[in-house]
Amino acid sequence: MDLIGEKKEICTLEKKGNIFILTLTGSGEHRLNPDLIDSIRSALRTVCAKSTSPSSVLITTAQGKFFSNGLDLAWAQSCQQRFKLMCSALQLLVSELISLPMPTIAAVTGHASAGGMILALSHDFILMRKDRGFLYMSEMDIELVIPRQFMVLFKCKIGDAIVRQEVILKAAKLTAEMATARGIVHSAHDSAEATVDAAVRLGEELLKRKWNGDVYGKNRMVLLSEVLEESKLDKDVEEIKTLSKL
């Protein structure tokens, strides 16, 4: 497995054959702030540049108790406009994942809350450990309004209106088994290691299909075109190229 290395203190990118594994590193909450979002976006650019085959797969996972605990609210709410800019930055990341020319798998090895759940949902497949962690949209509990662009993502990804209501309006904390039963998560696994191993196996199965990544990505973009259209309507998205300047 080759270490490519994207801002090692924040995340790493490894290549195992034609499978790329993006890992959010450390034991923290992996809050989505300018540095982390910029690092993930940089890793996605590296994936595209280093992909030497028409067929590749991306797996995103994390170390510690959290997959991601959402936006870095301490940073985002420290001055006016930062929360809006951070939502636009996350939307840009979502759009780039949707546009990536390969299948994507989220190996959720810990809590995925708010923006962290949105990050997971931006992948094609979600695998989750069942011994620890919740999928949880916390906005009702912390009194935040979910921006429209993310509501569109939920409508595209969670077809059952009752389940969407449970997730968004009841702020349900869903275990891996609960989320699997509701069709949000594709499979549940006994541990973090087992979840990543299952993601790699799924990636290998997908590679055997020898699909053309460009065609795969374009079909996904059509499937999730409403999400991409919302991104185009967000003027702030066009202004966010390098988040470190915020």
From TrEMBL:
Identify the Gene3D superfamilies for this entry.
2-enoyl-CoA Hydratase, Chain A, domain 1
Entry EC no(s): 5.3.3.8
Reaction(s) catalysed by this chain, per the record, are:
a (3E)-enoyl-CoA = a 4-saturated (2E)-enoyl-CoA; a (3Z)-enoyl-CoA = a 4-saturated (2E)-enoyl-CoA
UniProt keyword terms in alphabetical order: Lipid metabolism
N-terminal signal peptide: none
The record's section on InterPro entries has:
ClpP/crotonase-like_dom_sf, Enoyl-CoA_hydra/iso
Q: What are the BP-aspect GO terms?
A: fatty acid beta-oxidation
Alphabetical list of PANTHER family matching this protein = ENOYL-COA DELTA ISOMERASE 1, PEROXISOMAL, ENOYL-COA HYDRATASE-RELATED
Give the family this protein belongs to, as stated in its UniProt record: Belongs to the enoyl-CoA hydratase/isomerase family.
This protein is called: Delta(3)-Delta(2)-enoyl-CoA isomerase
